[in-house]
Amino acid sequence: MIPANALLLTDLYELAMLEAYHASDMDDEAVFDFFVRDLPPGYGYLVAAGLAQVLSTLRDAQFSDEELAWAADSGRFGDDFLDYLRGFRFTGSVHAMREGTPFFPDEPVLRVTAPLPQAQLLETRIINLLQYQTLIATKATRCVHAAPDKLLVDFGLRRAHGAEAGLMAARASWLGGFAGSSTVLAAPRFGVPIYGTMAHSFIEAHDDELVAFEHFARARPQSLVLLIDTYDTEGAARRLIGLAERLAEDGIQVQAVRIDSGDLGEHARRVRRILDDGGLGDTNIFASGGLDEHRIAALLADGAPIDGFGIGSKLDTAADTPYLDCAYKLCEYAGEPRRKHSEHKATWPGRKQVVRRYDASGRMRGDRVQREDEPADGEPLLELVMEFGEPVAPTPTLADSREHCAEQLGRLPDALRALDAQAGYPVDFSDRMHALAREADVHIEKQQLKSSGGNGP
């Protein structure tokens, strides 16, 4: 069976171009940039995420026997090309922003330098891996901005668009500052802390709600959270008081109650009073159900006494902005700068560096995109992370990337952290970048004129 992460997990046109490149002996060095054209409405920044998965994909890139057998049986490809695929490996280099780094439109987040067929084939998977985790990590940071002192947990696996998406959402949301995830595999795979409560079905399976609470508490006494909204939220909170006293005698503490439906703010206020009056002032209230950063901010602005939130469907599906206007474009081939002129989609040529500048307080004040060989008046953000098809150093741990993300977000201008950010962040292009763009234009015009048989002025 062909695995889900096989090299055939790509668009057909990548293989079609690859065969044409091979037939034409076009294997000179190419340079591609991954970047985002525009921010989603209300977003002041994006957070780079997914680099670790890109690097492992490039390092392990080769066609399996099963893939090659399918390609041969499909009748779509010539024998010579299939022989070429058998020896395919990625031998190029990658420069990238560190995971957890905020970035802005038109800034290259990742640059691939490799023989043209290698760099081209991996386009689809690179975009696939970077776009999704960037979306989720950024949305997670926005939830953290909305509730900076609250426990935030990813609850979205069951609503994610596939198993890989759910697992990557657990990774990306923790990178973005969440306390953890309900996705169990995220713990052994990435070291993400995992959290869990109970479902309504557990309560419904019992004839008595209180018996259900006690069964669960005695079976799972550590970090005990009880779901109280199956029938009557406030009624369950009242009945819980006596049970909590009995459990306490056996050293079992009800850490929190969870509310998952109805008017979360009003239920939380009523339950808080019931718990406090019953001597459970240390029992927290955890809320879930259709939440995102905007709903969380509204609840807290209204004074809802909620200590933590489970964010699921709207996080893992990036419901308000389910895709980024991102691209992976050729900017150099065979030593010549290349750029695209398409309406509203023009690109910048050449090998670039993004240089970040800070004000006296250490806050970001503006970025410059410049040619790679220009002196950097600030902090260069693109680092060499892969050379000759192998990582140049151990990939930073997810915990390190999470810490880097928190530090970087603390250096953002306040206006960009707003949930309805209107202010833009200054990104300019150096004079030499503009000159290189003109050089690329002249080059392509000359080639087009030559191929059409014209003599020019």
From TrEMBL:
Taxonomic classification: Bacteria, Pseudomonadati, Pseudomonadota, Gammaproteobacteria, Chromatiales
Pathway: Cofactor biosynthesis; NAD(+) biosynthesis; nicotinate D-ribonucleotide from nicotinate: step 1/1
A Pfam family per the record: NAPRTase_N
PTM description: Transiently phosphorylated on a His residue during the reaction cycle. Phosphorylation strongly increases the affinity for substrates and increases the rate of nicotinate D-ribonucleotide production. Dephosphorylation regenerates the low-affinity form of the enzyme, leading to product release.
Residue intervals of the Nicotinate/nicotinamide phosphoribosyltransferase domain: 152-329
EC number(s) reported in the record: 6.3.4.21
Recorded family membership: Belongs to the NAPRTase family.
Domain Nicotinate phosphoribosyltransferase N-terminal, first and last residues per copy: 8-130
Protein name, entry field: Nicotinate phosphoribosyltransferase
PANTHER family: NICOTINATE PHOSPHORIBOSYLTRANSFERASE
